[in-house]
Amino acid sequence: MSSRSNRPALRAGPLRAPVLGALLCLALLSGCGRGAAPNAGAGGAAPAAAGIDSVVLTSHQLQAIRIAQAHTHSFALQRSAVGSIDFDENQAVQVFSPYQGKIIHAYTEVGDEVRRGQVLYTIDSPDLMQAESTLIAAAGVADLTAAALARARSLYETEGMAQKDYQQAISDQMAAEAALKAAREAVRVFGKSEQRVDDLIARRAIDPVLEVASPIGGRITARFAQPGLLVQPGNVPAPYTVADVNSMWLLADVAESDVSALRVGQPVTVRVLALGPRTLSARIRTIGATVDPNTHTVVVRSEVSDPQHELRSGMIASFTIDTGAPVESLAVPANGVVREGDGTMSVWTTDDQRRFVRHSVHVGLQQDGLDQILDGLKGGEQVVTDGAILLSNMLYGASSDT
Fold this sequence. Notes:
This protein has helices at residues 2-28, 59-62, 126-157, 163-188, 194-203, 388-401; strands at residues 46-47, 54-56, 66-69, 71-87, 92-95, 101-106, 113-114, 119-124, 209-213, 218-223, 230-231, 240-243, 247-255, 267-272, 279-287, 297-305, 316-333, 338-339, 345-350, 355-367, 370-375, 382-386. It is built from six helices and 22 strands. With 402 residues, the chain is an alpha+beta fold. The chain folds into three domains: 40-76 and 327-401, Beta Barrel (conserved putative lor/sdh protein from methanococcus maripaludis s2 fold); 80-89 and 245-325, Elongation Factor Tu (Ef-tu), domain 3 (Beta Barrel); 92-242, CATH 2.40.50.100. Helix 3 (126-157) runs antiparallel to helix 4.
């Protein structure tokens, strides 16, 4: 009987030994779970206590990382967008012919700089011929009535003419002067100067060539004029298009989610690929009233001075719009912030430059190579600024090994 009762006790001894060993291991926190391994100094990084995301590095491993104190940084409140350069449509005109006719000469090419009043092209205009013919006839009638009035005045003063005949002569001369004035204005509508009008009257010769001049100074941006082309008022395309390029429009395509933060007058920093690292400064002039249904963006227009005429319509540009005063906040270099597999962001801190602890943080703005830390980190803490991703990989590697 006594021998049978001892057998279970002999069999149970080996089964209870592992359980007791495990309990002792957890109690001592030595070499088990994610705590600091006793052989960390032998060359391996060891996880810290269970439930704490930390690793311990050797002196050799410390050479692969950089550590700095968390500090505050001034983050500008900004919105970014992409867009393009365009002509100032308020200073761009299509130069149509005021009357029908055939183009005789076209004097300028695309890209030429022109001044206000410079002749762009000439046309052979039947309407101008008719106006000049009327002018010459009106001038002849005016001369005739003026001479008749002079004779009538002389006769009336010697009582050689009745008063009503004298008054009729005055009326005829006034009507002729009015007709001449109207004829002169009709010719001036075609762009003829007062001197040219006087010359037409003096020579009694018709000049059918109509000169079409640029109404503004600027650059020729489009040309469809060619000799022999029949042009009519308002028929597109216009023979020439001229734009004042001293100022240009900046058209930014801003995401509709950012529009609520925009206001007219906010400063804009523009970077144009063609200008290299240089930046241009402007201010918002208008904010679009509609959202593009395909891109869900709103066109925001700014204006920038371009006295050197370096900008070209269609150039790609990036826009940074200041939407408020800068804010002071904790900042960590971008290399010190790790995006974990579950989408969270984390940083690593240390108190003794040997044991490193991972902290989940909320990241805000990203500027100047720095990430804004909204919470999860305190000012003055020693933070890994380079090599943080190595620590995360080591932590996951140690976790998978256990």
